[in-house]
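hey can u check if this looks right to u? its 162 residues, i copy pasted from the old doc so theres a chance i mangled smth
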Amino acid sequence: MPQLDWSTFISQAFWLLVCFCTLWFLLSKLVTPKLADVIEQRKRKIDDYVQKADALSTAAKTSLNKYNETLASAKADAEEKLNNGKVELKNQLSETERKMTAELNQKIADNEFLLASEKKDTMLQIENIAQDLAYNILQKLGFTNISHQDVAVIAQKEKDNG
């Protein structure tokens, strides 16, 4: 094996050292700075993205807070309007009920008056019919000496006594 031959060992060590130093120099002066720049650029991009994400997160939280405040305000306004509507509706209902009660009471009073008047007229007609009937019965029974006015007087006395 030629690599284990002691006569070529010094030349192999020399070329190993030359190649190693050359590669080390090339890597340290050409490749490593470019890699470091790429890594640094990526780090800056990531940091920029993180900062933008933080800014967007803050803006989103602010928007969410404004939304929640607006929603709470809208709910409070709706609740207040609903309560005002309920109160107004109750007032309207009570006013309408009061008016209808008064109107119904007036109609009841009018109808009671009309009913009393009609009852009085009906009772008067019944009395007249009863007197006519009594007169006719008395005439058929043979009491021809009793007049229509006599029957009316007797009915009036009965009415006053009873």
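The chain has a mean pLDDT of 90.
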